[in-house]
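Fold it.
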Amino acid sequence: MKSVRTGIAGAVLVLILVGMLSSAAFAYFSTKGAGNASAGVSKLSTLTTLTATPAVGGTVALSWTAVVPPGPGTVTYAVSRGGGAPGGTCPNSSARTPVTSCTDSGLDVGTYSYVVTAYWRSWSASSSTATAKITVGQATHLDLKAASTIPTAGAANNLTITAQDANDNTVTTYTGSRSLTFSGASASPSGSSPTVSNSSGTAIAFGSATTISFSLGVAKVSSSKNGVMRLYRSGATSVKVSDGSISSSPDLSLTVSLEATSKISLVAASTTPTAGVANDLTITVSDTYGNPLPTYTGPRNLTFTGASPSAWGNTPTVSNSSGVDVPLGSATAISFDAGVAKVAGAANGVLKLYKSGATTLKVSDGSLSATASVTVAAAAASSLTLAAASTTPTAGASNSLTTTAFDPFGNTATSYSGSRNLTFSGSSASPNGTLPTVTSSAGTAVAFGAVTPISFSSGVAKVSSSKNGVMKLNRAGAASVAVSDGTISSAPLSITVNPGSPTRLAFSGVEISGGVLSSICAFSCSVTGLGNSGTIMAKISVTDSLANTVNALGTGNSVKVTSTGGVIVGSPMTINSSGPAESATQFTFTAKSTGSYTETLTAASAGGSSYTSATLTASR
């Protein structure tokens, strides 16, 4: 019985302990809170502390007391602001975290209410409401001010930049180094770009990131650093600044005045004009940075200099305000409008240069002056010019020609290049029938009157290795050599050809009583159909190898003419010692009176120097 009572007592004790444990869990979750657990009524302990501390710049620091979980697992939290999701680092109902503090941000001026809710498994409990009043909101814009709103072009102008909220309160938390970009102002006419100095003092051009240092929401200039602005284009402008998120509001309006120093500038529409072609000039009187002077207006007497006349005497000119071309070096009336003079039609600054090559044009009003560099290109070829290595060559000798193409003003026409088909003229064949020639670009000797390919480089054709213009004239005496490509031609080149050395005898001044004399008669002649008792009269000359009569042979020279038949009268003959070296008298040949015949007359040296004989055949 004792053992039975002992067992019953143990069972009762177990039941009592189980009942006691069940009563403790209920008490733990019985505090204020809500739950949806399935294990009967359960509660999560209440959040007793939520603090909300506002700060300048639109932030609120939140913190709360941690809730001890009633069992295994982690308590997480969600913050609501006015019933919605907060910003900054605060958890929300969609993204709960176990943190017990956070910072809400991005707030404008106003009063905000917050509630934090704790979650454990399926249970939750919310805090009472905490409020915070923001008196300085987040930075919504930058306030941009300048030391002067009417600065002089190029002058330093200190900027002050303040970060402000929607109510224009300074946001003191906007501090440290910030990357700003300035815009709105343009470069000056001469190309000087507007700049702002960064925190290191380096001038940064508008449009580029500029590092500016802020302290308690304000950036000020210090020792020429951190916001020194320089504008260079005169006139009204509006400057804007942005950090990529917020910008200046309103933008900074300024009116830039002219810099005190004046200058004149000269700009040509083309820096590579063609000779003789109109080239419009723009003349500007401005400050250092190219801003035109509005007071420089009306007619002004300018003087242009620097360019020279062309080789053929064409004088460079600039048209005045009336359209009259005025030679350089003379006063030229030019009309200005607010510091700028531009061409109108053919008047007020049309430049014409005629000499090819680089030149520097200068303009002056008597106190201000400027220059402009141009390189004048030759115009198209309008003529050819011949030059010879010698204008007194020996007959048959090589004589190098240089052929140049010129434009209408005497400039070498450099565009006249490559192979050109030329035709030479102005000289005849020698007495023995040898034609004058010029070598082609291939080195072939081409007779005058025939097309001769000649190669030009930049308007000039020169001889190279006995090719491309080696001339040989074979008739002694004056010649006027000219050349043409079919469109443009040269003026005649006067040349006097001298005979070569005396080497041969030749018949000259041949007269016949009947029949036909050969077209070429010098070293070898023929007369056909002379007839019975026909006569031939002629002189004998001492010549060079081309049958040109030499001169001043000296005394003691004579010739004798013989014949295979017929009668010779007047031989031997004396050669003149001065002047043309020909016999002083004629000989006469008389053919036989009957029958057919073919007779050979031979002229040979009889005294003095010996020369190659000449022959003449006469027949009936």
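Residues 504-619 form a domain with the Immunoglobulin-like fold (CATH 2.60.40.10).
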